[in-house]
Amino acid sequence: MCGIAGILNLSPGPLPARDALTAMIESLRHRGPDGFGFHSDNDIGLAHARLSIIDLEGGRQPIHNEDRTVWVVFNGEIFNYVELRADLQRRGHHFYTQSDTEVIVHAYETYGDDFVRELNGQFAIALWDSRRRRLLLARDRAGIRPLFYTLHRHRLLFASEVKAIFTDPAVARRLDIAALAQIFTYWSALPPATPFEGICALPPGHLGVVENGKIRIHKYWDWEFSDIAHGTSEAQLAEELRALLIDAVRLQLRADVPVGAYLSGGLDSSVITTLIKHYTETPLRTFSVTFEDDEFDESGYQNELVARLGTHHTSIRCTKADIRAAFPRMMWHAETPVVRTAPTPLMMLSGAVRAADYKVVLTGEGADEVFGGYDLFKEAKIRRFWARQPASIRRPLILSRLYPYLKHSPAAAPAFREQFFKQGLEHRERPFFAHIPRWATTRRLWQFLHPDVRAALKGFDAYATIERYLPAGINAWPPLGRDQYVEAHTLLSGYLLSSQGDRVGMANSIEGRFPFLDHRVIEFANRLPPHYKIRGLNEKYLLKSAMRGLLPEVIRKRTKQPYRAPDAASFFDGGRPADYVAELFSERRLHESDLFDPKAVRNLYDKCRAGRAIGFGDNMAFIAVLSTLLVEELFIKRATLGSFHVASAA
């Protein structure tokens, strides 16, 4: 795992200055504290910050081919590099390192731009072909590793994080209100949009080719649900899935440093740790986070599996005060507004991993998107059944079986259930049907925007915007496939793998790996008939079937409980706000921002301060406003985290 950065002249000009490259890569030191590397070649300057995991001595980047005409800087891991290396050597290529990085340059020489299809990994790649004067930018299929770029003054600047691009003082720093509209609807901006004007994100599964002063972006992979595998028995499918997961885990354990695993107590992380224990020789070192509030805490299930597997386990306890203190630093790494505090405890957890002298952890992220684990998918199944008879009184009663883990279940009160879940029933055939109630809830954040901002966003149509983002032919897929596609391209890649994944891991120089997002696992799952994912209201049916006899039944049969953390209540200690919270929500600061309606926000602030925040709506709104103001403070005003005050105000 690493950080990459670079500058490319799009028209003849001076060689990119080493000082500029150094400033860019210095800002990414947290991603790669083990050393910097540079390469300059006429119009290109490449920089790399290394977190050494494979070939600790010889794997320093940039890496080149035999005649030094192809150069690469790369963030991530190529898990099948051993097999690729052997194949490329048979084809006559000569290697000078043992690193996974070097297979990239030789694969490019062999396969051209299609080299990305040969890679099993999680990656952001910048490859320079000096003979053809072309730059290739590539991002992994699921969007695990980030890559940003901007065109400015006949130059292309690119980096693993936006803050590296902002080290160039000539690059404008402005929030993009159209992107905010997307975040305040879908929880994330849709690539290439980012929260910052003029800064683009390379979308997952895409390749960017820069030559002759122009950039072309094209898709090389995507989630696809049209080839359904009918006729195969459950036993055969379960065996195939188990074998695939074992191989994905085996590949992702490849490293020249110790590898640990996150253990939440849920099914997904339990699957990964159990497969490590039973099918590899890797010593099992696990890490988990617990909470003082029983509503969020899963320590009982964590302890159950620790005892069963005999792992060497580290657990950290996260309090509201911890979240309050760490939230600004988390936002410095996230670089985007968020609507939940959930990334913050995970940043603390990655700190515990680093303190234990580990650099790599495997996690269970992605299983819910791949195998239909979220309640949202079950909601949609019930709502489609209801939509066929929208006047039915009995059909919506099935919703009461969802959310047993919530104290304030949206399905508990019949009146609220009717109001919340009935939204959008008339759109049963549209590909985003499953997400309409959630987006409507998130869209309530708009009431706190400044009237001028709301006026500027008057033409924003959430349904039309997302439909332009979806592939042709999606309506021919099974309904569950449509639901999964939208979830994978909004919440998964834009939030879970970013703010809650890459960013909070790399804040402490920790690489997360995700066996459920091995593209072979995704492609296998996408061919499954829907009843192998959700059987009745039993989520991840085939995954549970594949793990029968390996997991404790109390965990294998456990109902999905999403990972959550305390939200608005974290920022007040007995009604006293943290200093930075009081400052950001002051009338003066709100008027300076021009993003939010000061009166509406102050009313929300007073409500949360008094402990009267109601449900998801108030909590999401408070965190959305706070995090947006922090993004503005950190990246538009300060451009540095600096000595940000987090103490409680008197």
The 3D shape can be described as globular
Q: Quick one: biggest sheet?
A: 6 strands, antiparallel
**Portion in helices:** 25-40%
The CATH homologous superfamily name of the largest domain equals HUPs
- The residue ranges in which pLDDT falls below 50 over 5 or more consecutive positions are 646-650
CATH architecture verdict of the largest domain? 3-Layer(aba) Sandwich
The helix-and-strand class reads alpha+beta
CA distance, first residue to last residue: 42 Å
Beta-strand content = 15-25%
Number of domains: 2
Classify the fold: give the CATH topology of the largest domain: Rossmann fold
State the helix count: 25
Task: Say how many strands there are.
Answer: 19
CATH uppermost class of the largest domain: Alpha Beta
Rg from Cα? 24 Å
Quote the average pLDDT: 93
Query: In which order are the strands of the major sheet placed?
Result: 2-3-1-9-8-10
What do you see in this structure?
By secondary structure, the chain is of the alpha+beta class. The protein has 25 helices and 19 strands. It has a 6-stranded antiparallel sheet. The protein has a 6-stranded antiparallel sheet with strand order 4-5-6-7-11-12. A 5-stranded parallel sheet has the order 15-14-13-16-17, with helices on both faces. Helix 2 (81-90) crosses helix 3, helix 6 packs antiparallel against helix 19 (519-526) and helix 17 (479-496) packs parallel to helix 18 (498-506). The longest helix is centred in the C-terminal third of the chain and has 24 residues, at 615-638. The protein is globular and about 70 Å long. The two termini are 42 Å apart.
